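Anyone up for a design puzzle?
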C-alpha cells in the first residue's frame, strides 16, 4: 500500500479540524475559507477529494459536519428485524467485496487465545495507519492509529488475546488486507474472537449496508435482547475488527454519533467516506 492513502486521510483530518473549529465558534465556513485555512489551492483540494471519495469538496464537507449522522438516520436508517438478515449463515456482502467469516467457540475464547498464533503488520489505509492482525483462518483485528497513536493501538489489540503468540509478518496477511481495503477484488476472510453475546452483536453489525446506519437499540432488538442497549453499546465498542465489522454505522437514536474506540474523528471520516462512495456509485 502506498503513502497516497495516508496523505489523503491527513488532508481530510486537517479539514475536519477546521470545520470543527468553525462550528465551535459559530461560524459558517465556506469552501474558499476552508482551503485558505489549509493553505491549499481550491484546485488541489478538489483534486485530492475527488480522487479519494469521488465527490466534490463542498459535498464532502457536508458529510464531515456534525449533522451528517442525523441526516443518515433520517434517510438511510436500516431496520434489523429479520433473523435471516443478520448474516447468521456466516457470510455477508460488505464494502463491495465478499466476506467470509467464522467465529471462535466459547471454549476457545475462554482460553484467552492460548495456542493461537496471530500474525500482524502495519498497513496504510484510507483512514490512516492501520494495525491488522490475523490467524490462519482470517483477520481477527484492525485498529486505526490516527487518533490513538501506534503504541496504544498495538497495546490495545495485544491485550485482547493475552495468551496468544504474536508474530510480525505483514506479507502473510497482505492479500486479506488488500481485499479488506478494496485494493483487490479478492475475498476478505474474518475470524471473530469474542464472547457469545459480543459475536451476536457483531453479526448484526455485518447486516448494516454500506452507507447506512442503525441504532444501538435496533441492534439490541435484532439479537433478541431489547433491553440490553447499554450492553450492546459495550459490545460494539469492543469490536476488534474495525471497518469490516462496521461498528461505525451504529449511532444513537437521537442522531448523535455515540462513541468510537479509535476516536470520533475516525468514525466521522468512515461515515463520510462511505456516504461519498455511495453517492459516487
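Challenge accepted. My sequence:
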Amino acid at each position: 500500500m502506498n503513502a497516497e492513502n495516508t496523505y489523503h486521510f491527513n488532508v481530510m483530518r486537517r479539514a475536519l479540524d477546521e470545520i470543527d473549529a468553525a462550528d465551535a465558534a459559530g461560524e459558517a465556513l465556506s469552501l474558499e475559507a476552508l482551503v485558505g485555512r489549509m493553505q491549499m489551492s481550491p484546485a488541489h483540494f478538489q483534486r485530492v477529494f475527488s480522487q479519494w471519495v469521488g465527490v466534490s469538496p463542498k459535498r464532502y464537507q457536508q458529510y464531515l459536519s456534525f449533522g451528517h449522522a442525523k441526516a443518515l438516520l433520517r434517510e438511510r436508517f436500516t431496520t434489523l428485524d429479520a433473523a435471516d438478515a443478520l448474516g447468521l449463515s456466516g457470510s455477508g456482502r460488505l464494502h463491495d467485496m465478499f466476506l467470509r467469516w467464522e467465529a471462535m467457540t466459547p471454549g476457545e475464547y475462554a482460553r484467552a487465545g492460548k495456542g493461537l498464533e496471530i500474525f500482524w503488520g502495519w498497513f496504510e489505509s484510507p483512514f490512516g495507519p492501520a494495525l491488522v492482525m490475523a490467524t490462519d483462518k482470517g483477520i481477527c483485528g484492525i485498529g486505526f492509529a490516527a487518533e490513538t497513536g501506534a503504541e496504544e493501538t498495538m497495546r490495545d489489540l495485544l491485550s485482547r488475546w493475552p495468551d496468544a503468540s504474536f508474530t510480525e509478518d505483514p506479507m502473510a496477511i497482505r492479500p486479506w488486507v488488500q481485499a479488506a481495503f478494496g485494493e483487490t477484488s479478492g475475498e476478505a476472510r474474518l475470524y471473530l474472537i469474542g464472547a457469545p453475546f459480543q459475536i451476536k452483536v457483531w453479526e448484526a453489525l455485518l447486516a448494516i449496508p454500506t452507507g447506512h446506519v442503525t441504532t444501538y437499540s435496533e441492534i439490541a432488538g435484532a439479537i433478541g435482547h431489547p433491553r440490553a442497549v447499554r450492553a450492546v453499546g459495550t459490545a460494539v465498542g469492543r469490536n476488534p475488527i474495525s471497518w469490516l465489522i462496521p461498528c461505525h454505522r451504529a449511532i444513537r437514536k437521537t442522531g448523535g454519533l455515540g462513541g468510537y474506540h479509535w476516536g470520533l474523528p475516525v468514525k466521522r471520516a468512515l461515515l463520510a467516506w462511505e456516504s461519498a462512495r455511495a453517492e459516487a456509485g
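A detail worth pointing out: Residues 3 and 125 are 9 Å apart (CA to CA).
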